């Protein structure tokens, strides 16, 4: 492999490790009551955020779901800002007011997690329409789960994006379960890429456990979209290793099924593909562990919202 390819692979592996270890740290902090409210973890799906976000520019936009920690980190939002948000500190990316499900960073064109299933789809279409009206050659990547395919706004947005040839990359993270409902119990057509293609847009099914496959498919789709080809759709077939949320008892999945998917762990697969030495892998782990330790310490030191400011931002402030 060339030096450039080795660097790319290392960067992708590092990003997946950052997301995995961050999520594991969040689970521990949640159990210690440092993080409150809902918490939806991305463990197992890291290849998608790392692969897709690596092909976007800083000028492109990102809209995502309530399972968005991985997207936020891969987008470049500092880890301490993400964690401070979960701690409810004003140093968080949403000033501690959004928590785990509502990460937001306008400067990085990261237009948030969204607690409503499918709620980000209309936002993404609107952002893409605005970019096109300004003649900005930007792409809006919109992440959503397979459960969103059952929502009316999914079909409305797919239709409008195709009709108006909007620069949207629809990224369906198909982890086979909408909360506790298996895909086959909710959808008569489980080939979601095929369903998307019925709207007249290019659509691909991608192995969401293979970060290189995700990156390649994203690069191909983004090139087409940026060239004026209209929207594209990626069905990223993946699996979450943990339950839907920290409140979920996860009794709707067979343990053998979970074990089979864990054999396809995207991080372990990338390590095998790169043939890393033990020393190189340990160095990467230390690097990420140190970043997490610094983020936890910084987040814990962040200030809490003063009581007198609790009604602030109910209305827009005058500039």
UniProtKB/TrEMBL annotation:
Q: Name one GO molecular function term.
A: magnesium ion binding
Give the lineage: Bacteria, Bacillati, Actinomycetota, Actinomycetes, Propionibacteriales
Q: What is the name listed in the Swiss-Prot or TrEMBL entry for this protein?
A: Pyruvate dehydrogenase E1 component subunit alpha
Query: Which reaction is the catalytic activity of this chain?
Result: N(6)-[(R)-lipoyl]-L-lysyl-[protein] + pyruvate + H(+) = N(6)-[(R)-S(8)-acetyldihydrolipoyl]-L-lysyl-[protein] + CO2
Question: What gene does the UniProt entry assign to this protein?
Answer: pdhA
Which residue numbers delimit the Dehydrogenase E1 component domain? 15-303
Q: What does this protein's UniProt record list under function?
A: The pyruvate dehydrogenase complex catalyzes the overall conversion of pyruvate to acetyl-CoA and CO(2).
Q: How does it assemble?
A: Heterodimer of an alpha and a beta chain.
- Could you list this entry's UniProt keywords, alphabetically sorted: Oxidoreductase, Pyruvate, Thiamine pyrophosphate
**Keyword Oxidoreductase in record:** yes
Species this protein is from: Kribbella solani
EC number annotated for this UniProt entry: 1.2.4.1
**Per its UniProt record, what InterPro entries does this chain match?**
DH_E1, PDH_E1_Alpha_Subunit, Pyrv_DH_E1_asu_subgrp-y, THDP-binding
List the cofactors.
Answer: thiamine diphosphate
CDD domains found in the cross-reference section: TPP_E1_PDC_ADC_BCADC (cd02000)
What enzyme class is recorded for this protein?
Answer: oxidoreductase
């Amino acid at each position: 492999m060339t030096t450039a390819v080795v660097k790319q692979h290392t960067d992708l592996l590092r990003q997946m490790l950052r997301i995995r270890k961050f999520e594991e740290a969040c689970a521990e902090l949640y159990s210690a009551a440092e993080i409150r409210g809902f918490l939806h973890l991305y463990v197992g799906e890291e290849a998608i955020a790392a692969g897709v976000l690596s092909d976007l520019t800083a000028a492109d936009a990102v809209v995502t779901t309530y399972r968005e920690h991985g997207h936020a980190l891969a987008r470049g939002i500092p880890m301490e800002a993400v964690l401070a948000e979960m701690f409810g500190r004003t140093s968080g990316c949403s000033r501690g007011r959004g928590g785990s499900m509502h990460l937001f960073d306008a400067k990085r064109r990261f237009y948030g997690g969204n607690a409503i299933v499918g709620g980000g789809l209309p936002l993404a279409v609107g952002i893409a329409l605005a970019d096109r009206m300004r003649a900005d050659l930007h792409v809006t990547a919109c992440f959503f789960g397979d459960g969103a395919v059952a929502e009316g706004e999914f079909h409305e947005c797919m239709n409008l994006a195709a009709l108006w040839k909007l620069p949207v990359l629809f990224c369906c993270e198909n982890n086979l379960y909408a909360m506790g409902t298996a895909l086959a119990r909710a959808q008569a057509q489980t080939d979601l890429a095929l369903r998307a293609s019925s709207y007249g847009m290019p659509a691909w099914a991608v192995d969401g456990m293979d970060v290189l496959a995700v990156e390649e498919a994203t690069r191909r789709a983004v090139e087409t979209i940026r060239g004026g080809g209209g929207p594209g759709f990626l069905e990223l077939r993946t699996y979450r290793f943990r339950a839907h949320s920290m409140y979920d008892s996860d009794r709707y999945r067979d343990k053998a099924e979970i074990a089979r998917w864990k054999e396809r762990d995207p991080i372990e697969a990338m390590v095998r593909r790169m043939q890393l030495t033990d020393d190189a892998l340990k160095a990467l782990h230390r690097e990420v562990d140190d970043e997490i330790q610094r983020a936890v310490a910084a987040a814990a030191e962040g200030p809490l919202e003063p009581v007198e400011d609790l009604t602030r931002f109910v209305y827009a402030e005058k500039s």
